[in-house]
User: Fold Glycosyltransferase family 1 protein from Chitinophaga barathri.
Amino acid sequence: MTGIKKMKLVFFTHYTELYGANKSLINLIEGLIKEQKTDVVLVVPALGKITDFAKLNNISCLLLPFYNEIQYNTRKGITSFFKNTLKFFYNWYLVLKHSRKLDGADIIHSNSSATFIGAYFAQWKKIPHVWHIREYGWEDYKFTYNFGYGYFQHWLNKSTAIIGISNSIYAARISTSPVKLKAVIYNGVIFSKDIPVNELPNKTTEAPPPKMIFAIIGLICEGKNQMEALRAFQLVHLTNKKTELWIIGDGEAKYIKSLKEFINKNHLQDYIKFTGYLDNIKSIYDSIHCLVMCSANEAFGRVTVEAMVNNVPVIGYNNAGTSEIIRDNDNGLLYSNGYTELSEKMKLLLKDNDLSLKIKHNARTEVPEKYTIEKYSAGIYNIYMEVLFSSH
Assistant:
């Protein structure tokens, strides 16, 4: 790449933990850096696991303690409005104070619809803005915008390009925007070279496990619906004691308390495990035998694809991003009617090893076609090129 000017990208992330949005941002940065076509600056609101990653990979970080202009309660009043207004002015203060630190940037890329400060910088600096929409908002995370949905739409419509992580997100949040450059690009979760080529399961190499471990992975919150997994597991465990459920992730204390109350009330303490957040993805999937995805409004389904890569069958709720990834009885199982139907699908996998093997095989062979980091980062790089072409 000697003699060719690299594209300078500034990424804004709205948080510092390594859940889906930031994992996908990391994969994007890794894919772009691998091609040696870009220089990257990562703007963060605080120090955390994502800045640890940046340090290990020599990625420039800019710490700006900005506010996300969203709220997780629906209370309205003069106090709430006053606080939200202060956050708005503080964010603009940061823009004015630190604008020179973005000198030379070709594109600003906001990694979530939960934060506006990337849009503010882009407007002030007259830099093209790419907005990556990764969530529904209220439906999945129960957040609303401080100044209403119209305020979000106002800033979204000032973007140069908008990217949705699924057709479902595109239809719900992007399709009506007048912005001309809009696209759906699925997240990539693995480099092609890292997909194990000799691990496709078959009847001669894989017998049913002596104990079936189901798992639900991700932020523990009402939107991810770990309670549905618990209720389904209770029904499964009544008929098969050689089963466990692992709840993997951290989350809301109040919701976790309600889960544990259900577990204690139904005497399931010995069969359900809270692992907390785990970094080692490979070790997780090597230990479990089925992933359940109970979110009714999963924007994409990153852990679904991770499970597919790692030969773990997925049972998912038949809606939104999950239904774009999973085809029932082909590369996974889908359910629509609550925990009773989910329990029946779990029991089906317990008794039908041939079905489990078919699902694993079909899922794994699909990953290289749709969900590699190379395909993901190339798709977004092409958006960047269109942005720069249209800006000139």
